[in-house]
Amino acid sequence: MNAILALEDGTVLRGRGFGCEKLVLGELVFATPMTGYEESLTDPSYKGQILMFTYPLIGNYGISKETFQSDGMKAEGMVVREYCKTPSHYKSLLTLEEFLRGEEKSGISEIDTRMLTIKMRRYGTMRASLAVGEYEEEEVLESANACPGIERLDLIEKVTCDRPYRLKGIGKRVAVLDLGIKKSILSSLRRRGFDIFVFPYKTRVEEIENCEPDALFLPNGPGDPKRAKHAIEIVKHFLGTIPIFGICFGHQIISLGMGADTYKLKFGHRGANHPVKNLENGNVNITSQNHGFAVDVDSLNHKTKITEINANDGTVEGIKNDYYGVLTTQYHPEAFPGPRDTEKTFFDELKKRLS
C-alpha cells in the first residue's frame, strides 16, 4: 500500500504502508530500543503520538502478547525503516502487520528514519499526519498542520480504567490512580505483596479515602502533566497525610502538587539505554524511559531533595521529600532493560517505607 508521512514543517515522505488504510494524527516521537516494540506500542503513555523506532528492523520476533502493557496498541501509528514480514520466534502468534490490522492501526516503512531522528534532535518533536492508502500529499500535509499539539490534548480519560478494581495482597494497602498504568508496574507492586486498589482517573477523593489506603501511587500516563488537574488536586489533598509514590508521569504530577513546575523537553527521552546518576551513592544505572516533559529543577522547594539526574542532560530523574513522605522516579524502574537494579531499588524502598 502507498503511505505518506507529513510533518508540520512541510516535510513529506512517501513509503510503503502496512496495517489499516486510514489517516491518523499525532506528535511524531522517536524511541531508541533495539527490542521491546510490543511493550512500546502497547504503552498507554504513547497515546496521542506516532511512534518511530530508530532501530532499522522491527518485528523480527513477531507478536506474542506476553509483554503487552495494556489491552492493545495505544500509539496512534508507527514509523519504521523496515518491518519484518516473516518473524521467527517460538512464541510468536502474529506478524507485526497482522497485529496492526487487528488493532485497526497504521504504519509506514521504507523511509529514512535516521534523517527524521536527526531532524527532531535539531528542531524538536513535531505534529504529524500518517496516511496509508490513496491520499494526496496536500491533504496529508494540511492534516499535520491542523493537528493540535500534545500540550492541548486531554488524553488520560482515553487510557484510564472504566471502574475501580482490586488486586488483593497481604501487605499494606496502596491506592493507585490509573493515569494509563503499565501492567509491569502493577506486577512489580504485586510481587511485593501490596493490597492494590486501582481507581479511574476522575475518582473522587472520598472514594479513595474509603479504601483506607496506606499510600497513594501515581503511575505513567500520556500528555502534558499540567493538564492532569484532577490528579494534581488529589496529590494536594493527600500530601502529608499518607506516603505518595510516583513513576514518570506520576513523578511530574506529584512535583506539580508540591508547587514545582514542569516543562516540555525538546525531543524527550524514549528508549532503553538512558544513563541515570544516583546522587546519593554515585552509581550510574542504565534505564528505560518514555517521557516528553520534565520537572524544573529550580522550582523544587528546599524540603525536596533531588536523588537522581539524567547523565546526558542533567534533568531531574528522581526526588524525595521526607517531610511529606514523597518518593518518585522519572524513568521506569519496572522496565529494567537487562539489569534489574532499578526495579529492586525503587520498589524495595517503597516497601521499606511502608513496613
Short descriptors:
355 residues, alpha/beta, Glucose Oxidase, domain 1, Rossmann fold, ten-stranded mixed sheet, seven-stranded mixed beta barrel, 9 helices, globular
Structure, explained:
This protein is of the alpha/beta class and 355 residues long. It has 2 domains: 2-152, Carbamoyl-phosphate synthase small subunit, N-terminal domain (Glucose Oxidase, domain 1, 3-Layer(bba) Sandwich), CATH 3.50.30; 156-354, Class I glutamine amidotransferase (GATase) domain (Rossmann fold, 3-Layer(aba) Sandwich), CATH 3.40.50.880. Helix content is 23%, strand content 32%. The chain is built from 9 helices and 19 strands. It has a 10-stranded mixed sheet, with helices on both faces. It has a 7-stranded mixed barrel with strand order 1-2-8-6-4-3-9. Strands 5-7 form a two-stranded parallel sheet. The chain is globular.
Q: What name goes with the CATH superfamily of the largest domain?
A: Class I glutamine amidotransferase (GATase) domain
Q: Return the domain count.
A: 2
CATH topology of the largest domain: Rossmann fold
Spans of 5+ residues with little confidence (pLDDT < 50)? none
End-to-end gap: 57 Å
Shape designation: globular
Strand content: 25-35%
Give the mean pLDDT.
97
Number of strands: 19
Please give the count of helices: 9
Instruction: Please state the oligomeric state of the protein chains shown.
Output: single chain
Report the top-level CATH class of the largest domain: Alpha Beta
Portion in helices? 10-25%
Q: Rounded to an integer, what's the Rg over CA atoms?
A: 20 Å
- CATH architecture descriptor name of the largest domain: 3-Layer(aba) Sandwich
